[in-house]
Amino acid sequence: MNLFKLAFPLTLVSSLRFFGLFVVMPVISVYALSLGATPLMVGLAVGGYALTQIIFQTPFGILADKFDKRLIIAFGLIIFALGSLICAYTDNIYLLVIGRLLQGCGAISSVMSALLADLTPEEKRTQAMAIMGGGISFAFLLSMLIGPFVGGSYGVKTLFWIATFASILALIILLFKIPKGEKIHYDYQQDQNRFFYLKDLNLWMMYISAFLQKALVNLGFVIIPLVLFQDFNFKTDELWKFYAPAGILGVFAMAPASILAEKYGRYKSMMITGIIAFGICFGLFCVSDYYQTFWLFVVGIIVFFIGFDIHEPIMQSLASKYPKASQRGSALGLLTTFGFLGSFLGAVLGGILYNAIGLFYLSLFIGGICLLWILSLIICLKNPPKQEILFLPHNKGSQNLSKLEGILDYYQTQDQLIIKYNPNLIQEQIIKEHLK
Description:
By secondary structure, this protein is mainly α. The protein folds into 2 domains: 3-380, MFS general substrate transporter like domains (Growth Hormone, Chain: A); 388-434, Alpha-Beta Plaits. The chain has 15 helices and 3 strands. The protein has helices at residues 3-22, 28-34, 39-66, 69-89, 93-105, 109-119, 125-154, 156-177, 196-199, 201-230, 240-262, 267-291, 294-319, 328-380, 428-434; strands at 388-393, 407-412, 416-421.
């Protein structure tokens, strides 16, 4: 079956859910201020959903291993819709934060990734994850176009109604267009690599990168509207004039970055390029604040979006290449948890630090973090090795494969032996002869 037909329905469900989260991001910090919020409450209004995502990510993952993943996802979408309704009805900052916290209780991101893995064959799984990542990036772009205009013209409450509708639409697609995934049972796992996802340095670089990327993105969505609103006297219904062009220009970076990473294996280079973009962004924010130069701040917003669009489509795909197959779910779950932790702390600390030290010193601080982040990836992160996949009939002697140089991973399902190998180090024929 065509990969796009397999991955598209679930990608659409994932994208609709993230659209519901993203669509309020460009204006929610200004909206929270209009409700009399303190800097802490502004941060909670922006990033509170991420806190409950962290808490409920593991319980939802455990339930997904025991029950139909579609039902678990459906439950999460219903919870998200209820949280959106609370936000749509309230004029109280505390109820707004409660609604945002409830939105995050439907922590189904890792469950959707797991279902996608169940629905797609091993040899196409990375491509399927890249499709889902691209869908999330498109949802982000669309929310940047719609959120500021609709929020400014018709009120932020309208955006929460849109988020509710998006969740209901995702629920309908899930129940009627997505089949039940077949759980894969491995009858062999490499015990010597137990807890590999907690020991591998490359994966820890990805966990840290997920944390920092999401922290910077949410911090940006706290301070950008506030600066435009407080320093340059723009109104909420004018914010779309900045987000829309920046989002469109940012998306032009998405396709080249994805191609260079996925097709040519330039994952590490693209990761560093995205961080450089974040560093330039906050450098421009710093200079614009010092000289009170409006156009430099606008250029910084554009570079901010470019950094996000370089990273987002490849993060999960890259992280899925390092762990063994039997631990991929655990690794991606931890990656997701670190990302939501970054989202929460970035939003909360962004509001507090912006109020305490101002944009100039906050931007200098973020620039230093970006520099350390780049240096750590240069030193510690390795590009995943080139790999090909060999499918053979079930073979009881497969344990001997660990003696061969160039074997990256191997495991057996109920009827197949699946071998991942580096074609630069070992040839297919040698593997087959070894198993005779």
